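Revision sheet: C-alpha cells.
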Amino acid sequence: MLSKRKKRPKKPTTTGGKIWYFIWHDNSVWSWIANIILAFVLIKFIVYPGIGLAFGTTHPIVAVVSGSMEHPGGFDKWWAEPASCSFGACTQEGWYKEHAVSRETFRRFSMKNGFNKGDIIILFGAKPERLVIGDVIVFRSGRPDPIIHRVVKKTWFNDHYLFQTKGDNNPDSITSGILNENGITEDRIIGKAVLRVPWLGWVKIMFVEMIKFIIGWF
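Predicted:
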C-alpha cells in the first residue's frame, strides 16, 4: 500500500507563524536565499565563536590559502628541494641542518608531511611556554589573513618568548616586509594546528574568489 503524501502545513495568520512558514516550508527562491543567509549568520556569529570558546582560540578553523606548507612530490623529494642557507644556495635538508634539525627530528614533528592549499586546519589555543620547535602555528602578520607556518626557533627575551617560523615549502624564513617571521611575539599567536582536513577549504577559497569577481565586475 502506498504511503500517504505528507501535507504541507496550512499558511498561518500570525506574524511569527508566517516567518516560520516562510523559512521552513516555503519553496520559493526567496525562502532559499533567506535560509542561506540564516545559516551563514548562525555559523559566523554563534557556531564558530562557540567552537572557538571550546578550543581556546579566536580562529578554531582556518582554510589554507597558499602552497607555502606543501611537500611537492612527497617528503623525500621536498627534502631535496632548493633552499637558502646563510652561506648561499642549499637544499631544505641543508637549511634545517643549519638550524639544528635533522631528518629524523623533522620526521617526528607534527604534520611532518605538510599540507596543501585548500585544506582545512583545526586549531587549539596554545600557551607560548608549551609550544616547541616543529609545531605548526597560526599567527597575525601585516597581511589581512593570518599566516600558518612551522616554528623553527624559540627564544626567551625580556620576560617573554619570541618565535621564528618558516613555511615548509619556502626557501627560507621571511625576515623583511610586512610578513616578518623572525621575532613573532606571544600576542600575535592565534593557535596551534592539531588536525588537517583535506580539500574542504576550497569551498571558502572559491567563495572568496567569487565575491572578488563580483566586486570587480561592478
